[in-house]
Each structure stands twice: as C-alpha cells, then as structure tokens.
Fold this protein.
Amino acid sequence: MYKLNRPYMLRSACLTLAILFLSVLGAVAQDCAVNLRNAENLFNSGLVEEVPELLESCLQSGFTKAEELSAYKLIIRSYLFDDKTELAEQMMLEFLKKNPEYEISPTDNGDFIYLFNKYRVKPVIQLGIHGGVNMTYVTGISQNSVSGNSVEGKYNNESVTLVAGGILRYRFSDKFELGLEINYSEASYTYTERFLGYQNIIYNKKQRRLVAPLNAYYSPWSFGGFIPYLKLGAGVAYTFSTDGQPTTDNIDDNNTGEDPGATVDRIDYTIKLDPIISAGIGMKYKLPSSYVFLDIGTMAGIRNQFVPGKYSSLESNYKFTGNELRLNTLRFSVGYIFIIYKPEKIQE
C-alpha cells in the first residue's frame, strides 16, 4: 500500500505558497508601475483630479523607493494644480515623515520646491545602543596593611571587561549635541602586595556598576559620511555588586606554592555612588536616518572606593585589607543610533 510522505508534501506545499506569494507581489508591483505611468499621462493631459485616487493605494505597498518618491511628488502637484492646498500640505507632511532627509534635486518641479521650502525637518531625539570593552586603571591614594608596616603594592591594569548600554541624544546644531548614556559596566583589577617578606598577597577585585554620564559632543567638521567628534561630561556610577578573590603566594623556603582563596562578597567595603568625569573622541558614519559610531573614552572616578573601619575575613584569613583608591576606566565601544525627525510647517 502506498504511504504518504508527509515531510515531502509539507515542503512542497510551503514552496508552492511561497511561489504564489512572490507572484502576487510581482503582479502588484507591476500594476503599480503601470498606474504611475498612467497617472503621469493623466497629469500631462490636465486630468489632475484623477491622479491621487490612482496612486494612493500603491503608496502603502507596490512601489519601489524611486517610484514612491515620484508618486508623492505627482500627487502633491496634482493637489496644487487643483487648488486643494490643504490636501497638498497633508501629503507633503506625509512625504517628509517617510523621507525626512530628502534634498531637492535638479529634476524637481518649481511648484513642488515652493511647497517643500515651506517646511523644515528637525531631528527631535536620537536613540541608540552600544557595546564594547573596558580597561580598568586605578589611582592609588594609600595602601593599607594588616601588619601595620608600610607596603609597596602593585596594581595590574591589564584586565578587559564588558560595557554595554543605551543612548539618548539631542542635537542643538550640526556641531553640538547633548547625550545621556545608561550603561552596564564592569571594572576589574589585580593588586599584588608583599607581606612581611615571606608571602605575596594577590587580590583580584571586580565591580559591576550602572554608569550614567551626561556628555556634550562637538563635531568640528565632516568629510563624506564621516563625522569626528570630541566629548566631555560628568555623571555618576552606582556599584551594585562587588566581589574579590585573594590568593596567597608563599615564597618562604620552607613553605612555597600558591593558595587560592574563595571569592568573597565585598559590596559592604565599597562605596555605592561615585561621581565621574568623562572625556573622549569618536567617529560617526552617516546612514539614512541613522549612523554607526566608534567611541574611545575615559571615565575617571572622584571618590575613594574603600569603606574603612570594617573588619572582614580577608584580614584574618589572608592578611589583607582594602586599599584607598579611585577607580577609572578606558572604554572602547561601537554603536548604532537612530534619528527621530519631526517635520513641521514654517510659520509665515
């Protein structure tokens, strides 16, 4: 008895539906192209009142981008010739919402240009995302030791951690912008200290923070689609998670080898809020209604990170207490920003 091959039948049905769907789309696109040619003939014949009805259904779907631009212009001109100024203005507003960065071309007709120049399109806000890496570097204030002796420890700033977040910007002019970032940011460093000549204490610390800088951006020039910029600002960093891992490296002749300790929570020994100063440079590349960018910047902490006066297990078990320092990061990130425009008629 013949057995149905269900997977084969399903694939065949899906392929048939896809072919039918593409055929319908092709037919619609072909009909809309014909409608545009017919509308141009009607306009040239003086039958302008019939043009909008012939084209408006295809504005939703069916036109290529070039055909859509031509259709909008033809409808606007038809309304103007038919003394329907309000409808022409409504269509111009719709045109500018879809094409906020449109620039007049040499082929545009004078009546379209006249109405176009009565409108301006302003970028309202810019929304974006970015992500990259941090490199942490610390500014030491003082080094503490449970031995009570002065110590000469060393910070290792080679660790690379994650940064990512959202961006909100407002453009005052072609050269000046103001932007707020809300970032998830990690900072990590290693500190090594010699304890009483027989032991090295290696302490790895990692902080997870929400960082919110408010930056001013200045773009002195542009070339092609590339726009370099400088930025300067200030903000705040909120530490919500901190952990440290101590390791003892015994260097005494009778007792050698490393003893890695457990990771411990250090949030109670770290300040929560830290004011920051930010600065950097970057490069934007313009895309339609958006741009991509590369950003290099630093964020310098102002407050001492260590909360003194609290006894911890690190002191009893690993002969280590926290150091007083400021936390700074060097950031490399890439991102994408979408520009939201608002077209409006110029008040006469």
In short: The chain has a mean pLDDT of 85. Residues 67 and 250 are 77 Å apart (CA to CA).
